[in-house]
Predict the structure.
Amino acid sequence: MTTPSLCGSFLSSKQSLVAFVWTATTILTLMAFVMAIIMTVQINMQYQHLASIYAMDDDYNNQEGEGEEEEEHGSQDRNKDSLLYSLMATTSSRSMTFVAVYTMALAVVLNLYGSTAIVGFTSLRGDYIAPCFSSEHNSMKVGIFGGAIVIFANLLLLCAVVLGEFRVEDYRDDKEREDYAPYAVERIATVLAVTCMFLSVLYTTFAVLLFLTHASEEDDSIDLEETEYHSKPLVTISDRTPGEAFLTMDESRSS
């Protein structure tokens, strides 16, 4: 008896469905990290360019010599802007860098372990490929893996909330902040916060799907065992061969 297909010939079982969703999760995770890295590099290049422009203007104004009082006041403002944009471009956070690298490392480990030992993955043609280092279904390993996914999703949610409130405190008030762009590290923190929130939703969805399919597989296995138990034929005396000896109670006592 063949297993009914869930989606034509593409998803033939619940196991292939979980593997397909896990493969999509892995690809989306990789794309999210690549996009975050690209946006981080672009932000750094943009602020470095602004800082170099203001530094060139500052050097040019210093070479002009003495001028009127208004020109000196404008020169002081340009010097202030040059210093401010230089700080905006060079200010960094080691803790935020550690969070980004640690999150990426955890994601890589989980995806490699899930693809090679627990769930498997789907090929480009849609064929299910079983895990390389696990030949049989182990409920305990699946439960541990699902728990790790839930913990990782909650960690991503926590990082998204913390990074979303990241702010550099300096001498400026809120009114002065409105006249200038935010720090480069603040914009990078926003990018990482959005990335972590997206990945948190993604891994939470997969964890829910994993537990639902695992629970349904357990119910199916229990129903199958009960069906096999009740479908066993009863052995009667007529089922014995003609030459088979029948042991009575008296014969068993005498022996």
Observations:
- The radius of gyration is 33 Å.
